[in-house]
Design a protein that fits this description.
Structural class: mainly alpha
Number of strands: 0
Largest sheet: none
Number of helices: 8
Order of helices and strands: HHHHHHHH
Strand content: under 5%
Distance between the termini: 21 Å
Shape: globular
Oligomer: single chain
Radius of gyration: 17 Å
Length: 149
């Protein structure tokens, strides 16, 4: 098992899998806020959930989810986007979902906790070698901060 843990190819595959899965989920949720629920509907829902400044935060959250999700899929500014999305999910967890318990069918926090964990894991491990970050920052000091591949 030790050899698998230290395999650069498997680490790259794991990071790519994390990016694609969580990037897609964030992108889908932002898309849903814009086009299925509409921004007006999302704003109203945020207001009913007690989110302050819902008319500002609803479009901001939806835009961050779409743009951040797409950027994570591409591996572009991965740690920045993952950090912002992770914070957004932690705020949603405590502000809206914690009081409803664990399970999502009751409005609980299981989904936002999973999304936060995935985003924060990407913040910690970086995008990997198959990413725009690795291509853009290759050979620069920034790659040690942004890519760490």
């Amino acid at each position: 098992m030790f050899a698998l843990e230290n395999s650069a190819g498997l680490q790259t595959a794991a990071r790519t899998l994390l990016r694609f899965a969580f990037g897609f989920l964030f992108l889908a949720h932002g898309w849903q806020k814009y086009f299925q629920f509409t921004i007006e509907g999302t704003t109203a829902a945020f207001g009913q959930m007690g989110v302050p400044a819902a008319n500002l935060l609803a479009p901001l959250a939806a835009t961050l989810e779409i743009a951040g999700g797409a950027a994570i899929i591409l591996g572009l500014l991965t740690r920045v986007c993952a950090g912002l999305l992770g914070v957004q999910m932690i705020v949603a967890l405590f502000m809206v979902h914690a009081a409803a318990g664990v399970f999502v069918e009751n409005g609980g926090f299981e989904l936002v906790l999973a999304l936060a964990a995935g985003a924060l894991a990407l913040l910690l491990v970086g995008p990997g070698r198959i990413s725009l970050d690795a291509l853009i920052f290759k050979g620069k000091k920034a790659d040690k901060v942004l890519v760490n591949a």
